[in-house]
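Cytochrome d ubiquinol oxidase subunit I structure dump, as promised
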Amino acid sequence: MNIVDLARFQFAMTTIFHFFFVPFSIGTAFVVAIMESMYVKTGNSQYKKMTKFWGNVFLLSFAVGVVTGIIQEFQFGMNWSDYSRFMGDIFGAPLAFEALLAFFIESTFIGLWMFTWNKVGKGLHLFFIWMVSFGTLASAFWILTANAFMQHPVGYSIKGGRAVMVNFGALITNPQLGFEYGHVIFGALLTGSTIFAGLAAFQLLKKRAISKESKQIYHKTMRLSFVLMFIFSILTIGLGDLQMQYLVKEQPMKFAATEAVMKTTGERAPWSVIAFVNPKTHEVKGNIDIPDMLSILSYHKTTGSVKGMEEINKEMEKKYGTRIAGHKMNYYVPVNTLFWSFRFMAGFGTLLALVSIVGLIMTRKGHETLYKHRWCLWVVAILTFAPFIMNTCGWLITEFGRQPWTVYGVFTTAQSVSPNVSVASLLTSNIVYFCLFTILAIIMIALVVRYLRKDPDDIENQEPKLADPFAKGAF
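structure tokens r here:
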């Protein structure tokens, strides 16, 4: 592997691990805010216990997410210094807003929310958790503003060999940002609701005595989660559909790769359910096609040709050249990775929508059959892991589909890497990061498992009591 490959591997490893926790914390913060809203509206103490119990799971995800986010930011200075020099003027603005505004709100109100139970009014305490949720959503907005620019650069000019921002408004009204933000946020909210449904199912499956009240809280958690899963799975799929239609025009190579279209189709394009592409010969084998379906998915009508990767590559060679900064260019993207990532992402999204509908039917009042069948609970419990696979696949499509560019059509990945790093230093840092992430993952899993040995009743009965350190006259 060369320096560019190793730097890309390290960035991918770091970002994928960090992205496990970003949708996790965004989604769970939102669902916890809804739980507390239900407590404030109804006055039912079960909702308060539910909020406090699941709120601690959110806090664990937030803590690990912050650590992995800090590690990820090191990447830009370590391995991508030429990218930072070229894009710093533009990339720095949204990241500064994220750190100084969104993260400040998020972390401040988390502290207020954690330490003011029973110390401020219910309405004010509810305001704190909604501000936490607002902070996570705002944080994602600024990060995705930077990413959307890399996918679709707007509002800039090149001066002195650097990209300079000339229109901040264009940056935050980037059409790519609208589709990307909506899809990612609804996916994150789907993640949070699915995780709580799955963890509640795990709690019910445990072979130990559960108090009647704790059991009712798990039932309420699953019922609420199924409602949210249904809403957010539909919205995620809908935004994903709009985003794919946008890609047909703006990033046709990425779109063609997600559908394994090597040669431009006829007016009635078939959709491949499965396919295997030889990236060297560009042959597509083993495909099972549904007639006209790709035209329907692309244009919402039965006719419409889809450009193939071969034709798009020729167009890009004509537009950008066959060499950039001394590097021979290849505009093809990893087609098999994108094709299967898209199917796993869309497949799990559809599965979660179906499970939420069945779950709502099987948990309706007077016909609560889901809790009586352990295999049903196991299905919901195992789906706890589905959003992590789904989100990772979505990230792979977004970032691999942009290659060979870091900023689409402007700056290549080969141009972006730090000139002073070596293969030895990258191998060493890759090994160190891998070990660090493995340890963090083990700690995170151990903390969640240890915490889930308790039930909502246990948490409520273990309220910390403030003690006066001078009460015993020690001083």
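The mean pLDDT is 91.
lmk if u need the other ones
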